[in-house]
């Protein structure tokens, strides 16, 4: 299967394979494409299979990663996604090999990626990554694992920064939601949840990460979307309004 590199020249015409389907009339992917265009200048690479499906890998030098990690000299995978009918065909390995090849050519110490103790939404599959030689090099509460594939066996292993280790914030009661435009759908769903919380009389504070430097100081490991309730990290899953209200009922009452 042909692998396409998406860059500034073809970004506007290529399908970028996002996980949530847009409704008719929405143009949410434009937000993601604008985010990508800025990141290309920082060394981000976006590669996809030549299909209209969720089959892609996105990676960047770790120094520019939107993640609270210390991983100088590594490549960082933002997202590796193969879904639906394309699973089980070796395409995930093919995409990963593209990243490994680039990392070696650039003299990187290795490749880092944030995953989880078991497969979870919006996080790369830990079972697949470990099968490909990745190892757990650090953990962050409540379920995040930082995995790495060492290319230099003597290199210092990547670590989560202290700010993200505990998954807690000291900002009082209510809901805090941290997000970025790395996913095109966060903007839509964050504001839907804000409206739902305010109807319940619950404080809801949004924080959008607009730079890598801001994201690198995040209180949670996953900066695309991190929901806190009463100071405790709850989930990185982009929630619908119904799921959010159910969660509020369980956590706040």
Structural summary, described in words:
With 253 residues, the protein is an alpha+beta fold. It folds into two domains: 3-161, Aminopeptidase (3-Layer(aba) Sandwich); 164-251, Glutaredoxin, CATH 3.40.30. It is 25% helix and 27% strand. The protein has a seven-stranded mixed beta sheet, sandwiched between helices. A four-stranded mixed beta sheet has the order 11-10-12-13, covered by helices on one side. A hairpin with a 3-residue loop joins strand 7 (135-140) and strand 8 (144-150). Helix 4 crosses helix 6. The radius of gyration is 18 Å and the shape is globular. The model has no long low-confidence stretch (mean pLDDT 92).
Which features would summarize this protein structure in a list?
6 helices; seven-stranded mixed beta sheet; alpha+beta; Glutaredoxin; Aminopeptidase; four-stranded mixed beta sheet; 253 residues
